[in-house]
Design goal:
two-stranded antiparallel ribbon; single chain; mainly alpha; 2 domains; two-stranded antiparallel sheet
């Protein structure tokens, strides 16, 4: 079996991040597609994705353990610079699929402004795919499974921490209503991952606010990987939540 190269591993990590844990298997069409594009077998690609689970620090359970030094090096690159590596991996994925023109040659301003806009859109799309995959496309508070109503919500806002904008442990999968409440500081998550509502919400006595009021004290559902970091949640409680 031919050794994996860096560019191939970047593509494999990209797919790992966007694939729900239960779909890392040889019958997954996206795994089959990547295998074909790389000239490998679906078994080889799915096994490589399972290998990443063994070095994923966000996982308690571990996958296969046959990882190479290059596997670890490229994985470390991702975790140290999510923003740069997400964009690089999406460009490589578009190139190997032949879809660069659709994604990167959009009809917008030229030069650095165009590059910045395209990078922003690509990275936001990647972040959404990661978060929805980690939470199996369900709101972590209500369990709502309708993808069109789900938001990949940042715990520490995008503008406040450039290093962790694309860090999936800085994300929650929320329905649009709870996302707005979380973003506005009307809702937060405590140290034990339970929902805490603001006094402003709790003071309302209206059936129309029942969807939020009923989630007071509910424990959020954990993602299958990329569990939210406690320091990010603490930042939200101390700097955004209005109490």
């Amino acid at each position: 079996m031919k050794p994996w190269e860096r560019d191939e591993l970047i593509l494999a990590i990209n797919l790992y991040c966007k694939t729900p844990f239960g779909r890392i298997h040889v019958r997954n069409p996206e795994i089959i597609e990547l295998a074909m594009l790389l000239g490998r077998t679906p078994g080889s690609v799915s096994y490589k994705l399972a290998n990443f689970a063994s070095i994923d620090p966000s996982l308690d359970r571990k996958g296969a353990s046959n990882v190479s030094r290059l596997d670890k090096e490229v994985w470390h690159e991702f975790f140290e610079d999510w923003e740069a590596m997400a964009y690089e991996s999406e460009k490589k994925m578009a190139a190997i699929r032949g879809s660069e023109a659709d994604i990167f040659n959009q009809n917008i301003l030229e030069g650095k402004i165009k590059e910045a806009i395209v990078k922003l859109r690509v990275n936001q799309h990647f972040f959404r795919k990661m978060i929805l995959a980690a939470y199996n496309s369900k709101c972590c508070i209500t369990g709502l499974p309708l993808e069109k109503l789900l938001v990949a919500s940042h715990i520490v806002p995008w503008a406040k921490d450039s290093k962790n904008r694309l860090n999936p442990q800085n994300g929650l999968c929320l329905n649009a209503l709870h996302d707005k409440a979380f973003d506005s500081g009307l809702l937060t998550i405590d140290e034990s991952y339970h929902v805490v509502l603001s006094k402003e919400i709790l003071a309302l006595d209206n059936k129309t606010i029942k969807l939020i009021r009923d989630t007071e004290g509910v424990k959020m559902s954990f993602p299958n990987r990329f569990i939210p970091r406690q320091d990010f949640l603490q930042y939200h409680r101390e700097n955004i939540f209005i109490g």
